């Protein structure tokens, strides 16, 4: 079971290209196990498993890895072919250079290019031709896929120092904090990710058999399920665990378990654009959504499981997280929403 959830915004944004091409997106949602009714709840979220399935359905139905957003189709297998090329690269710098060379074979090109200056490296988005991407989904996906593919290949997260976007902050801009774990800059002159140049010399540690396994569910999993094991956010989530019915570890205990001082940990979480309280709140929210999908569990039992002694307190907190009561949310998941 994955702890992570994905905002309704990304579900709807992902389907925009398919809708424009006349596909039955309700059918795609149902096949992915997502009730179209649930998406009527403005602050609804789906599990990362559901989102991953939806992305795979989109790619296979459209036969287009750009999902109907690009100036041309990217035929199925394009990403896998690029991965087959980069798996033999010695280090991350070679991976990004080789991936760019591959992508520029297609015209108009949609890719990212590696630039270096002093101690900094940048992956800069290069998009030619007209794209149809009103919710920025294609642009976000390219950033996320290139960053997370590189991190997976070298077996450690490429820690981002800054993510910048050449468009204004969108309404769902707050979600970016949990995607990129770094300071954000909207309205910039480019769309790019900045990181320390030292990551470029990190060796590729994956082999061809690992890559074959990886490609069974990627790039869908890269978009829906980041490997957070080496971010402080991810490590704290793992230390807290899933059992909220007992007292949670305090911040000092967490810092000691991570072999760091509370001050340093606070600073690192600030760099990752979050806080200890927010990590706990979002983990509670994600667990509550997961338990609500298990229809046999009474709502009062779920309240206890996610650490609320009073069901009324749980109802208030859940409404703050999602805009609706746990009961209405469950009806949305069942496809019986009347609100």
TrEMBL record:
Domain annotation HTH araC/xylS-type: ranges: 234-332
A Pfam family of this chain: Arabinose_bd
Keywords recorded for this protein, A-Z: DNA-binding, Transcription, Transcription regulation
Protein name in the entry: AraC family transcriptional regulator
GO function term, MF aspect, one: DNA-binding transcription factor activity
UniProt superkingdom: Bacteria
Gene3D superfamilies to which the protein is assigned, alphabetical: Homeodomain-like
SUPFAM superfamilies found in the cross-reference section: Homeodomain-like
Organism field: Marinobacter salinus
PANTHER family assigned to the protein according to its UniProt record, in alphabetical order: HTH-TYPE TRANSCRIPTIONAL REGULATOR GADX, HTH-TYPE TRANSCRIPTIONAL REGULATOR VQSM
Lineage of the organism: Bacteria, Pseudomonadati, Pseudomonadota, Gammaproteobacteria, Pseudomonadales
A Gene Ontology cellular-component term: cytosol
